[in-house]
């Protein structure tokens, strides 16, 4: 059974009755709602851009004016399979609008600059696996970048336009993939549509998994991998099973080559599926034995590909992920052990999000817990004879339960980022097991007033989850444009920084090794085509900025800079004037106090005007560029080119 399966005969389609006008009314309704919703979204962005009021109410009005009727048509009992498919495609397209309107012309989010540069380098040079100076593991996972570069090369459009084309297709495919996956488990098109809608309520759906980032392509690949796995397990014959097994291996490999976290998540989900179907095979010794064998074979194949890729192609990945996980666990331990507030994180601290958004964010996990409890009870009471359906449902229940530990992890500063990213996986489990509960509730409403009450309550819950999850997952500065804001991953780009990066490229060349802070490094490393470093535990370049005037900088660091051929230093004097919005100046584990005041003084940042080993070559007010002169310290001048 698929989303385009033949429509069952209903009183509306029986010969001799009045023709079904649902497609016409659906098209009219969603066209009008889509136009009104898009207009409201544009208006909300303009209000935010010019800082003329609160954009939140208008934004959510625009989202809900389309979402709620789309949900109605997708979940309506008499909606045909083809119409349901069309509604889901339209819904997926509309839900890409918020991110498309946020930055239609170029990269904006932190990781987008890295991925834009990587795709552009592939288009210009034709080489994969090149090192990326902004996010150091990006080059080891070229799936997205090679797809974007290919589209740009074949069509002649820009890299950003090619990226939008790929991302929109991926966004549609993830919605359809969840629906097909749900239909594989429940064999019901209505449940499939509900599952797709529920998944779209997760915190990453509107903004994070629509950005120019490798997860935006990897998650659809993961979902369709699971579809292929279930179909291989259920295949009616050897040829069918072999075909779907080969498809699953191919999609697994594509996932591994696209994103590290999604690949690891894929192995975890496949292990859960294989384990649950194995338990069934041991207890009942029915058709689950063959399914279990296929599941374990595909799990081992995916695990082998992940291990080989991380070991042979992307060995830096473990070191890249370790600081985030390690520090998050330390902070969580400190929080639970009562060792002080160092490990705690206050949700919505100094947030400009309205109170009703914050209430919805706290209500969303509670509603998810209630829904998951109901789903667990339903699975316990209802037995499915099909081993694949039963095992798939139980596996998704386990996956959905992983959502709740991540909700706790978001209370730690370093764990918050990982927690948000995990919800794109765990919400898949929630969607697939809660969808039958929703359809059962709708089915029990037999009278008109009951249908209206049940449908209205469920739509209200849908609205709360959409608003709350989005508010919990993305800061307002990610969701809305606005005046320049220092220390924001989306608003720190200014004409002054861009002009400085262009000047350096034009006068000194490209691919220079430079020292910079997190935000100027984004612009110099992408548009400026340079190779910035923003510091790390083993290469603490931030010590240059931290050192006090008149005191020597660590000779070991100076020697390291010279021997590694760093040629330029970028200084953003806003570090002495403003506190970064995300409380990071250089990198996550920086040894810099964050107490609500600027961590630097102007004397610290202007000391390079008089140090003998730096020569100022550019000054625009906030941005200064210095050339290192290590020869003045008796060190060989090695230049700045790679």
Describe the structure.
InterPro entries: LipidA_mod_glycosyltrf_83 (IPR050297). One of its GO terms (cellular component) is plasma membrane. It is a multi-pass membrane protein. GO terms for molecular function: pentosyltransferase activity. The protein is mostly helical and 642 residues long. The protein has 2 domains: 22-479, no CATH class; 495-633, Rossmann fold (3-Layer(aba) Sandwich). It has helices spanning 22-49, 56-75, 81-95, 97-102, 110-125, 143-155, 159-186, 189-199, 214-234, 238-256, 260-284, 288-313, 317-337, 355-381, 387-401, 403-409, 415-444, 448-473, 476-479, 495-508, 518-525, 543-546, 555-563, 602-606, and strands at 513-515, 531-533, 568-572, 614-619, 623-628. It has a 5-stranded mixed beta sheet with strand order 2-1-3-5-4, with helices on one face. β4 and β5 form a beta hairpin. Residues 4-15, 338-343 and 637-642 have low confidence and may be disordered.
